[in-house]
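Hi there, hope your week has been kind to you so far. No rush at all, and the record is pasted right below.
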Amino acid sequence: MDDRAGKSYRNRRPGPDHRGLPNMVMGFEILNGWDFGSEPWLIEIGDNVRITSGVRFVTHDGGVWVLRHKYSELSDIDLFGKIRIGNNVHIGFNAIIMPGVTIGDNCIIGCGTIVTHDIPANSIVVGVPGRVIESIGEYAAKHDDDFMHTKKMATDEKIAFVLGHLK
């Protein structure tokens, strides 16, 4: 892992990055501990995307290592796949995004999920392998009574409010 993996990035400039970060547009949040793998130039990240700690992007199939050693005619092969992340996506702690995956707009990828196939827009995905469990609309409706409007509160106000509601 290179020396950038322990850093956070927010709202950097769009386009390819000279340090090997993926192609990104404005409006994203990448928390500490990420891993864009050995081919970060195969990753496209949309607008308003949050990548939390421990998320890994895998852009190649390491299994070809066995084929290289078993079959001499395959000694120099690699198998790559682009990863595309849509707009307004949250990727939870320690998720793994596998090669060739596209995640649609307005998706939530749960903590620890391994995404092995394309995810349609407006989906909540969890598990190993990742599977859609509900839509964004269903998630919002299910938690409507649970939401707390605290994002703009001062820290002390937020603590008192949350503790008062979670008795």
Summary: The chain has three helices and 14 strands. Confidence is low (pLDDT under 50) at residues 1-19. The radius of gyration is 19 Å.
